[in-house]
Fold Cytochrome c oxidase subunit 2.
Amino acid sequence: MKGWMGKTKVLFVFTLLAFLLAGCGIENLTALEPKGYGADRAMDLILLTTLIMVGVFVVVMVIYVITLVRFRRKKGQEDHIPEQVEGNHKLEVIWTVIPIILVLIIAVPTVLVTFDLADDSSADELTNVNVKGNQYWWHFEYPGEEVQTSQDLYIPTGERVYLHMLSSDVIHSFWVPSISGKMDVNTENVNTMYIEAYEEGVYWGKCAELCGPSHSLMDFKVIAVSPEEYDQWVEDMQNTDAEAEPETAEAQEGQELFEANNCMNCHAIDAAASGIEAGPENNGPIGPNLSNFGDRSRVAGVLEPDHENLTDWLMDPESIKPGNHMTGQYPELSEEEAERIADYLMQLQPSEITPESAGE
């Protein structure tokens, strides 16, 4: 009896912890508070399937309790055999037809939503973005605006934005739970989906397909701003000057070190489109575009955007994102050199439209 009570207490504690931990999370990283069209449709399906499952559970439990009470073994009837229902056609039809109906109730709306979210008939009239998944970062090119960036995807609110997605290495999965569902990002075929955010804000995105040792750190952000602010951001990015001289002496020294260490072999510092097309014949850029690095919401996708974290990343990226393709691709930096390059990168701020202005 004592051992049984002990196991019950342990089970109760773990159940309580599960409920408490289920309430932990990051704002704008949940599918249960939809703030976009795709997430809204997914929420409808979640509620529908949950309602059906709860209904089935309740009905089964009611039948179970009635059976236990009504047909329990009674004193003096130990050898009594209840009426058998094997071969009862009416019952067999009922418990065959009901599950089929329930499956259809779930399947039909699911198929309709799937086709709805995959509809690209109006893509030519709206904003299109080529998305390239890499270990462990994301690249975004706006072919209509001749702008490219990485890690932070800017979109206008209240409008559909079509994403044409391809991977340069392994299979990834694009997921912004607050505003859209998931879509696999493959190496040989382009998958298309659209996203639409109802309100301004910074929405967290994740790679939802195990893609290597730093899969859990392959984060990105969707920055939803008003259509007017989006147009301003595009104009600002189109006018970036890669050859502009930094204002401070430290940043100027950092620019020289950036060029001397061949960082530009992998990283662009202007936002002009480079002809990167979503297709298997083109692997896209080697490293993230840095044209608006100073406005990024995170360093390396996961660190707070400050000078210290950027310096740590430059000195030892492997300790932060194991398996990344930046490690060992440039000469070892001293702490002072890393700090100067950080000074240079942090001042790359071509626009006043930033994650902070979007309400991060």
